[in-house]
Amino acid sequence: MTTSPEHLSPRDEQHLDELERRLGVKLRDRSRAICALTHRSYLNEHRELQRDDNERLEFLGDAVLDLAISHHLMERCPAAREGELSRLRAAIVDEEGLARIARGIGLGELLVLGRGEQLSGGRDKPSLLADAMEAVFAVLYLDGGLEPVVELTGRL
């Protein structure tokens, strides 16, 4: 299930406009992009919505991000051996690093959270931010292939 464009609220549209501005990209599939910002806690409270949460996108984004970071490391560390490259990638692509990237672009402000998650500080929880950031990378990949992800990760 994904959100069709007619199901995007004005608030959703504002969040997506701001996400595009912060990332410096234009997202083709806005319904998929709003799913990347939607935490399951929100959908638990709004079961009437025809929308997915960001968990499946998070799964794909994790793999896409590993590939993009591996690409950068291969270019920037031509003499590094496989073990060293793996250690470097693991140090970059972890919850703390992803949460830091998410905070850097203000992703927490754009998340669509349930009331309980909002009240418990969900907009700044490292795990929630990291998961949403992975989902955003998946959206970029699905929208335009690996190049936009490699380009964005090179800027962050």
Structural class: mainly alpha
Q: If you average the pLDDT, what whole number results?
A: 93
Unreliable stretches (pLDDT < 50, length at least 5) are: none
Strand content: under 5%
* Rg (C-alpha, Å): 16 Å
Main sheet, how many strands, which sense, barrel? none
Give the total of beta strands.
Answer: 0
Instruction: State the distance separating the first and last CA atoms.
Output: 31 Å
Query: How would you spell out the order of helices and strands?
Result: HHHHHHHHHH
Helical amount: 55-70%
The helix count comes to 10
Shape: globular
For the structure shown, list the relevant keywords.
mainly alpha
Task: Please explain how this structure is put together.
The protein has ten helices and no strands. The chain has 156 residues and is mainly alpha-helical. It starts with 9 loop residues before the first helix and ends with a helix. The model has no long low-confidence stretch (mean pLDDT 93).
What's the arrangement of secondary structure elements?
Layout: H1 10-23, H2 30-37, H3 40-45, H4 55-76, H5 82-92, H6 95-104, H7 107-110, H8 115-119, H9 126-144, H10 146-155
Helix pairs in contact: 2-9, 4-5, 4-9, 4-10, 6-9, 9-10
Short summary:
The chain is mainly α. It has helices spanning 10-23, 30-37, 40-45, 55-76, 82-92, 95-104, 107-110, 115-119, 126-144, 146-155.
